Amino acid sequence: MAEGFDQVVVICWSLVLIGVLSVVMRWLKEMWLKPARIRSVLWSQGIRGPPTSFIVGNIPEMKKIQSTIKVNPKPSDAKRVHHDWIPSCFPYLQRWEQEYGSVYMYSTGSKQHMYVSDPKLIRELKLHNSLDLGRPTYLSKSMQPLLGDGVIRANGHEWAYQKKLIAPEFFLDKVKGMVSLMEESTMATIKKWESHTREGEEGIAEITVDEDLKSQSADIISRACFGSSYSQGNEIFSKIAILQDALSHPSLLFGFLNFRFLPTENDKKVRTLRKEVDSLLLKLVRDRQKKIQLGGAFEKDLLQMILESAATSTEMPSHKTDQFILDNCKTIYFAGSETTALSASWTLMLLALQPEWQERVRAEIVEVCGGVDQLHHCLQDVDKLSKMKTLTMVIQESLRLYGPGVIMAREALAEMKLGDLDVPKGIHIWTFIPAVHRDPENWGSDVNEFKPERFANGVSEACKYPQAYMPFGYGSRLCIGQTFATLQLKIVLSLVLSKFSFSLSPNYQHSPVYKILLLPEHGIKLLVRRVRT
To answer: Which of 55, 57, 306, 346 has its CA 20 to 30 A from that of 213?
Structure first.
């Protein structure tokens, strides 16, 4: 009996030992063998980078470099606003570029990164359209509470299916039908600002324009894509903004190692917010479904198209239908409103510093439309909007200096070639867009100046390597809402500039910060005065 018991004990301990060894081997593979293989492939091709440490990689050095950067924003005037703010944002990326060149490698724990700012390699990335170049899986996982598994996060065939579904809703022929909504929402903001200026001393009001433009953009995306007003979606946007802030940590962005076994208060907050946002969106969906069942008629907005596609799809399991709808609603709510509002806000800040460019835009409106009073009719004609070259140049230069997208991240989901470079599977390719947009070798010595005239002959003539201009991303994953966003920017800016002049408030503090997008940390406070016509 004792002998049999001893044999059982031996077998149990043997199984435990095998299990432990299996876990250790998997851990060594992920933490050592796989990273070593990736780094050796890049090293053999002459790509270098800062020395790494086992397990932690370059994380200690990154934290040390970041800690040396101190930003103390003060009230600003035109002479104290500097557009070279990028040293305060991911300073280690720029420091390593100075030391190792425009293509180098570094590590955050087991994750291996290849930083790319070389225009020729960026061109290859833009031309690479296979499904093997996708969103980093670890980054997508951390953003899941905010974006779900929608088109921004998805990879492979799942991404291709969602893009095929959603992209046509943002083609020009569809977007043209949204012009009236864009104008109506903007006019509501204009009336609010007119009220402020009437009450202000000498007809001048200090307005935090980014707050109002965010509400306005939310109203546009709500009405255009979901058939609802901003007042109905206000709670959704509010919770999404809080969720965005909660997820804006470098540890999530770079996939820093996390040895915690218990969730933090922030983790609990994220889970709660995610449930609340999902619940609100699901109510929006259910209300629409009930009205459809009762025979209600709806325009073919994005929500209606998503509902119909989910109902008829043969590629989607029925139990995933609700999640598919929620994920894409979250994606459109966040990406569709926030980015455009930020672009308009930063543009007005830049124009507040350059009153002569405000005058040029107003003069162009008179020339193209036949007068400011004809602007309404002009906005209904997309061909006339396309003739507003000065406004286009202003927008392009603003997106160069203050585009809402900061980091372009891709993961090689398979072995691939980029030009002459062999790219190993599993490498994360990073590009810091503001630095690329400020490369003096590409843009000239005036790279930190707001000079819309550099785009007078289009992007192709604005710089030496036009492929390095990428405010909407690159390749097959180019922003599907680019046409929608550009049209909205033109309508919003032409309307507000025809009604108001802008100058910088003495209370404005220039402090761009990274929180998934490029945000004004203390808001964009401008002095607003009505234009006499």
So the answer is: 306
